[in-house]
Amino acid sequence: MDMIYTESHFNFVKMHLLSHFSDHIRQFGNIPMYSTEFGELRHMEQIKDGWRRSNKNDVERQILHSYGRQHAIRIRLLNLISLRPRRANPCDHVLRYLDKTTGTVSTPAPRGRILKDRRDDVSDVLDFCTLVGISLDWICLELIRYSRHNLPTERRPPEEPAILQLLPVELLTPTEIPVLAFQETDVYDIHRARCTGTHRFRNQESQKDWVWVQARSEEMYGALRGRLPAKLVALFKIRD
Questions:
Q1: pLDDT of residue 103
Q2: Most distant CA pair in the chain: distance in Å?
Q3: Quick one: pLDDT at residue 190?
């Protein structure tokens, strides 16, 4: 506890840089070189990973030991890798281990969205448009546009409005969207969004959450990277 009280201050680099921002912007414009990404990455590797591996008792010592072992192993791997161009003769099991640890690491595929709480008051696209209060012509055009841009040819629905309006629809209330955690490759945070349509939510007015929508490529809209805020109108799924 003494360490917590003595180290509880804001005297670290990220906070100190704030005092220089206004002068730098006036002299040079934007401040891309003041990125704290490097420090954040080091914090994840040196602190967070060690904390997750610990048993949460005497955490500081276990974090230091964990990072020290990782650092020592990296140094040994670099030494072994440097032997290859010099035509050294490491053991076969060492070569196999190097092949395994220096290969390309693939990022796991993101998990799909999870829709829940199916409602029974909608059977097809025509019912859906009537209940939600949107134009049938508009939803047919949007379905065609979406299928052309996102679905393989064999999975696209027919583009005749007379057939589209009879496609079976499931109307749902919440959805769970897995989002890759910051600075992680295999850890996902679950973001929940809800849209009750015309129904009340917990004896209050209807709930229609705001979400970010990927509207354009990542080069668009500056820092938003192609995303725009949008309010949910309905959560639905079209069945084959």
A1: 43
A2: 75
A3: 77
Q: Domain residues of the chain, as ranges?
A: 2-101, 114-238
Instruction: Compute the Cα dihedral for 167, 161, 212, 131 and give only its sign.
Output: negative
Instruction: Determine the Cα–Cα distance for residues 17 and 92; give it in Å rounded to an integer.
Output: 50
How far is residue 106 CA from its own chain's centroid? 16
CB 140 within 8 A of CB 165: yes
Q: What is the DSSP string of 83-120?
A: HTTTT----HHHHHHHHHHSSPPPPPPPPPPEE--EES
The DSSP annotation for the chain comes to: -HHHHHT-S--SHHHHHHHHHHHHHHHHS--TT---HHHHHHHIIIIIHHHHHS-SSSHHHHHHHHHHHHHHHHHHHHHHHHHTTTT----HHHHHHHHHHSSPPPPPPPPPPEE--EESS--BHHHHHHHHT--HHHHHHHHHHHHHHHS-GGGPPP--HHHHTTSBEEEESEEEEEEEPTT-SS-EEEEEEEB-TTS-BTTBS--B-EEEEE-S-TTSSGGGTTEEEEE---EEEE--
Question: Which residue numbers in the chain have pLDDT < 70?
Answer: 1-10, 29-42, 84-117, 182-184, 240
| Residue type at 23 in one-letter notation | D
